[in-house]
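chain below, 147 aa
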Amino acid sequence: MSGKQQDVLAILKLYELRRDDELRAARAWYLGEFNPGSAQEIAAMMLSGEGPSARFRMVVSYWDMAASLVNNGGIDEKLFLEANTEHVVVFAKIEPFLAELREMFAEPEYLGHLERLVRKVPNVEERLVKMRGFLQRWTKAAGAGPS
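prediction:
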């Protein structure tokens, strides 16, 4: 089996993992309901031990892990970036608060794999701004408030 075929199988496996019921529910919550207003709000939610904390950690750790595989050569970067966009959406929601969260938790590399991969996306800053606007309109239309 060629390297490219192995990359394809790895991407398909990541997709299969995303279909897990718990991860699917966490992703739906993150994309549709999670609408943070501050790093403090995120930190309080993470430390609460309640359902949103687990859902948040499940989503961001999944995408940070997937990004690590790509960043370290386990999956072809070009192929991954052409096959996935959800990691950019996940990053768009957390990026405005990431520096402060890293400082609060004394974890300077928190979600670093995800950030490094997202920063490789062409026109990423423009895309992140547009994506955040879309996500805010989406959660507002769905009637979701901060969680």
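Residues 3-141 form one domain. Helices lie at 3-18, 21-32, 39-48, 51-71, 77-83, 86-104, 112-118, 124-141.
thats it, cya
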